[in-house]
Amino acid sequence: MRPLIVISGPTAVGKTDCAIWLAEKLHGEIVSADSMQVYKYMDIGTAKPSLEQQQRVKHHLIDIVNPDRDFSVADYQVLFDRTVDSLLRSEKIPVVTGGTGLYIRACLRSYAFTDPGADPEIRRQLRDEAANAGDIDYLYRQLKQVDPETAVKIHPHDSHRLIRALEVYRRTGTPFSKLQAEQEQEQQQQKSPSKYPAIFLFLDRDRDELYQRIEARVDIMLQMGLVEEVKSLLEKGYSPELKAMQSLGYHQISQFLENRISLAEAKAQIKQKTRNYAKRQLTWFRKEPVDLWYHISGSNEEFFGEILNYIEGRLKQDVE
User: Fold this and answer.
1) Is CATH 3.40.190.10 what the domain over 120-187 is classified as, yes or no?
2) Which of 4, 164, 225, 296 could link 198 by a cystine bridge, Cβ 3.0 to 4.6 Å?
3) Side-chain-side CA neighbours of residue 318 (13 Å)
4) Residue 189: which residues within 8 A CB-CB, separation 6 or more?
5) Which of 74, 275, 292, 112 is nearest to 200 (CA)?
6) Which of 116, 214, 211 is nearest to 167 (CA)?
7) DSSP H helical segments within the chain, as ranges?
8) Contact predicate 136/206, CB 8 Å
């Protein structure tokens, strides 16, 4: 079986350009591993590949669900397997790229997820309870009583995650933290470490340079029309309370449009939270079985070429 090429790294490091260039050279196709690029109508804030980039190389697993759809890693895993199997049958090399660590881990290791699923009625009840209480901290206090371990990991005003954790508890009678711990233990005990052979590369840059790229990207997103994109989503009827709309960038711009913060405050928050997200990505992937942790220091031409040489060498070894 041909190996997958996996290109990951922190946000704004340069994954997309590298993956597209490699896919062109290797006659492959891109399989996105980004939890936000699955959503339609959310292009600018998710740094989705441009139409020109998508025309250069075929992309999979972007623009597949509406923003009001609850889309889990288990849902992604099913589509990933279907897509990769089809590409391998067509003798195409899948170039998997994205920074969502759980998506990459789950698909390469073929995790079996125990998802209690959504219960719209319980969610409605929780929203009604919070509205009737008239207290912004109501949901947080409820979760703290039944699952304090999860509560400390969630911001007291993150209604989507609070409702999800309470929904799981009311539906199963088991704290969300306990279900997660049991699932993680099961995953670690799985005998098959990898479903697909893969060449796993992680791109990195000097911290100051990465932060400069993050700040520049946020500025460009605003220039490209991020405010208008969020306004359009709200006008389409997508609630700012939706999981997708609570994501980085969309949440802050929604708050700006609701006159809760200024545009300058929204921009500053997006930059800071994106830097924090990049730190978490680096921490996550240090625990993963990466084949090559590549520190970018030269031009794109130089580092693309070195990455290609490494991959071709590995592919040659596999043939021999």
Assistant:
1) no
2) 4
3) 13
4) none
5) 292
6) 116
7) 15-26, 51-56, 73-89, 101-109, 120-133, 138-146, 148-151, 159-172, 176-189, 207-224, 226-235, 250-257, 263-285, 300-319
8) no
296 backbone dihedrals φ, ψ, rounded to 5°: -80, 125
C-beta of residue 244 within 8 angstroms of C-beta of residue 35: no
Q: Which CATH number fits domain 4-112+190-319: 3.40.190.150, 3.50.30.60, 3.40.50.1240, 3.40.50.300?
A: 3.40.50.300
Distance CA 93, CA 39 (A): 24
**Alpha carbon distances (Å) from 276 to 143, 219, 222, 271, 282:** 25, 17, 19, 9, 10
Within 10 Å of residue 261's Cβ, how many Cβ atoms?
17
DSSP-assigned beta bridge partners for residue 94: 29
Query: 7 and 201 in contact (C-beta within 8 Å)?
Result: yes
- How many other CB atoms sit within 10 Å of the CB of residue 156? 15
Q: Closest by alpha carbon to 116, among 64, 189, 173?
A: 173
**How is 219-252 classified by DSSP, letter by letter?**
HHHHHHTHHHHHHHHHHTT--TTSTGGGSTTHHH
- Burial class of residue 135, CB neighbours in 10 A (0-12, 13-18, 19+): exposed
Pick from 320, 291, 294: which is nearest to 5 by CA?
Answer: 291
Tens-digit pLDDT string for the chain (320 aa)? 789 999 999 999 999 999 999 999 999 999 999 999 999 999 999 999 999 999 999 999 999 999 999 888 889 999 999 999 999 999 999 999 999 999 999 888 867 665 666 778 898 899 899 888 887 789 999 999 999 998 988 878 778 788 888 988 898 888 888 887 776 666 555 544 568 999 999 999 999 999 999 999 999 999 999 999 999 999 999 999 898 999 999 999 999 999 999 999 999 999 999 999 999 999 999 999 999 999 999 889 899 999 999 999 999 887 55
Burial 89-98 (b: 16+ CB within 10 A, else e): eeebbbbbbb
